[in-house]
Each structure stands twice: as C-alpha cells, then as structure tokens.
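Quick one from the shared queue. A colleague (R.T.) flagged GTP-binding protein as missing a structural entry in our internal table.

Convert sequence to structure tokens.
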Amino acid sequence: MSTNRLDRNIVVLGGMGVGKSTAIQRFLKNEFSEAHYPTVSNTYNKKISVGEREYNLTITDTAGQDETSILDPSFAGSTDVYVIAFSVAYRKSFEIAKIVREKILDISGVESVAMVLVGNKSDLKQDRQVSRNEAEELATKFNCPYIETSAKENSNIEELFIRSVKIANKARGDDDV
Ligand code: GDP
Ligand code: MG
C-alpha cells in the first residue's frame, strides 16, 4: 500500500449563511450544528481515498462573500478546486455565487477555473427559491458540476468532496480517477 498521499487544496466560498462551515464540519466530523459563526475562517486537513488513491485534503473555509468583499489573492496560486456554495432556499446567495466566480477569475487572471457549484440546504423543500434546473443551467455555463447537498441531513456531502478531488485531478490533466 502506497503511503504517498497526493495533496489537494480546496477553498470553499459563497454567500454568508449558506452552510459552508456546517458542510465542512459535517464532512470532517459528521456533526451538524444550528450555530452560525459568521466571521470564522479556517483551514482543515482530512485524508480521503478516491478510487485507488489517497489524498490529503486541505480545506479552507472562508468567512463568506458579498458583492463588495475582496477575495484573498493568495488563493489564486494555491487552490486546486473552488467549491462555490449557495443556499437553494435563498435566491440572493445564488446571485452571490455568480459574483464570487467572477472574483475568482479576476484574481486568477484566467477564463475558467476548476470549481464545483453547490446548492446546499436541499432539505428545505418548502422554502426552495432556486430550482435544480436553473442551477444546472448555470453549472453548464460555467462548465462545472452541480451538486445539491444538505449538511443538515448529511446528503451528498462526502460526494461533494470526492467530486471536488476528481475535478481538481481533471484540471491537472490527471484524468484516471
Ligand atoms: P456559512 O456562513 O456559509 O458558513 O453558514 P453556516 O455553516 O454557519 O450555516 C448557517 C446556518 O444554516 C446555520 O444555522 C446552520 O445550522 C444552517 N445550515 C447549514 N447547512 C444547512 C442545511 O443543509 N440545511 C438546513 N436546513 N440548515 C443548514
Ligand atoms: Mg462559516
């Protein structure tokens, strides 16, 4: 068994309150919290197997963006894949997701980046403000996958991070996983 783990850097971005921190904590510890600490930004490590290979993920949680926030330019050089999250129950956060992608392209100076679009809070069925169709269309436009998650119900959270690794690999021309 190889002990050579591959490093992949994942940065999680998106509007405030969409569930970025909750989704990360769900993935790391399988915990859900109702609490919201808006300004916390942190970096975590987790080992994960995808296909035959092992990875050491570095996951950066961010404080959350809005129209006016400035992205940390240091993300540009060191990020393998961006996870851009919104809440399917809050339309404004869907609009913020588009703005965040523009900001990433700005700091990166490229026309496309490795990213996954995430619609979280899929459990809030009665409160849905963004349809799956609409989100899928946006993802098609961005040439990236769309995944619906619920950090609350632990739905698709692990899949999200596995998918992120695969997209990072693809961007590196490392297609065999
Ligand atoms: P962040 O600002 O994006 O990091 O958002 P948080 O992770 O702090 O979550 C904001 C609020 O949304 C908290 O009260 C969480 O408990 C709640 N939350 C997060 N994910 C979900 C989810 O999948 N479903 C529901 N119903 N609530 C969620
Ligand atoms: Mg947070």
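The two ends are 17 Å apart (CA to CA).
The chain has a mean pLDDT of 94.
Added to the table.
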